[in-house]
Design a protein that fits this description.
Strand 12 and strand 13 form a beta hairpin. The chain has a 5-stranded mixed β-sheet, with helices on both faces. It has a 4-stranded mixed β-sheet with strand order 8-13-12-11, with helices on both faces. Strands 2-3 form a two-stranded antiparallel sheet. It is of the alpha/beta class. Helix 3 crosses helix 4 and helix 7 packs across helix 8. It is built from 10 helices and 13 strands. The protein binds acetyl coenzyme *A.
């Protein structure tokens, strides 16, 4: 049996930090409101000329070094993002070119905040089938470029970043199972109203901003994140006591707390980065994973449960042995 196993991880955050105090000067908000409603204290914001692919390259370099491989070894690139450099070519090919990765399959997946979980699940299947020997999987976003900085209800929530993982085949257990889902009936609760075949003329105008029904998103997020975590456990006959670390999408500390309560999971077993990263959409789970690994909390042999939820709605979980 071939498993795919995480050989290395990396993350990259843009240099510029935007604190809640900075936001107080921009919109009618307060540090107290943002902290108490979201847990967020600061977020990183990409520079004007920084591209999502630049963030990806920086994160990928660390993951590649950590895995002890070279770019020559990579034969698949999958990127989850909703903020690619261009509509086409897809961002994975841009990363491939920038990093000098030899010709291989390279594609991106748009599943909003669940993008990395979808990407990891896809790469896992390529590896298990025997087609791929070394996959570079990235979740990345420069979502702040989609933000209306006058809209206090959304501008305080988001941040930029990239997280990368190198996946390789192994006889030892790695990714145990992945679980993906979506329900398009919720489209109007969270969306960006500008696309290619619809409303393209609104790009860059006041009508192009993230549309979100915060309260409704909150409720469905908590219900779905607990259900998809349970789905992964049930599929493997495990319980939460068997999981060393839960690594959820970092949208909002209150969503994480409410999910933990529903699952009866102690907060001490949950990697939390939302306080310092904000909601980085598809980048949030791989960056939180990398934070936990780098600071020594996540160790080889431990069981991890990754999960995310985002616009669509989309959702997914990955149960793995690190
Ligand atoms: N500063 C101060 N006041 C604000 C701000 C702000 N930044 N934003 C909104 N308010 C005001 C509102 O105008 C409202 O005022 P009113 O009562 O006078 O009308 C009041 O605060 C309460 O607004 P609510 O929207 O009810 O506040 P709530 O407690 O629901 O918190 C929040 C809003 C944080 C967005 C919450 O609904 C939430 O976390 N939802 C989840 C959505 C989310 O995380 N989305 C991220 C993308 S989706 C994802 O990643 C899963």
């Amino acid at each position: 049996m071939i498993y795919s196993r995480i050989a290395g991880t990396g993350r990259y955050l843009p240099e510029r930090i935007l604190t809640n105090a900075d936001l107080e000067k921009m919109v009618d908000t307060s540090d107290e409101w943002i902290r108490s409603r979201t847990g967020i204290e600061q977020r990183h914001v990409a520079g004007e000329n920084e591209l999502t692919s630049d963030l990806c390259v920086n994160a990928a370099k660390v993951a590649i070094e950590e895995a002890g491989i070279t770019v020559e070894d990579i034969d698949l690139i999958v990127v989850g993002t909703t903020s690619p450099d261009l509509i086409f070519p897809n961002i994975a090919t841009i990363i491939q070119h920038k990093m000098g990765i030899p010709a291989c399959a390279a594609f991106s997946i748009e599943a909003a905040c669940t993008g990395f979980i979808y990407a990891l699940s896809s790469a896992d299947k390529f590896i298990r089938s025997g087609d791929t020997k070394c996959a570079l999987v990235i979740g990345a976003e420069i979502i702040t470029k989609l933000i209306d900085w006058d809209d206090r209800s959304t501008c305080v929530l988001f941040g930029d970043g990239a997280g990368a993982v190198v996946l390789q085949p192994s006889d030892e257990q790695g990714i145990i199972s992945t679980h993906l889902g979506a329900d398009g009936q919720y489209k109007d609760l969270l969306y960006y109203p500008v696309g290619v075949s619809s409303n393209l003329a609104a790009a860059g105008t006041g009508d192009s901003r993230i549309m979100m029904s915060g309260n409704e998103v909150f409720k469905v997020a908590v219900k779905t994140l607990s259900a998809v975590a349970q789905e992964a456990l049930d599929a493997n006959g495990l319980s939460l006591e068997d999981v060393d670390w839960l690594i959820p999408h970092q949208a909002n500390l209150r969503i994480i707390q409410a999910t933990a309560k529903r699952l009866d999971m102690p907060m001490e077993k949950i990697i939390q980065t939302v306080q310092i990263h904000g909601n980085t959409s598809a980048a949030s789970v791989p960056m939180a994973l990398d934070v936990g690994i780098r600071d020594g909390r996540i160790r080889r042999g431990q069981t991890l449960l990754l999960e995310a939820f985002g616009g669509g709605f989309t959702w997914g979980s990955v149960l793995l042995k690190y």
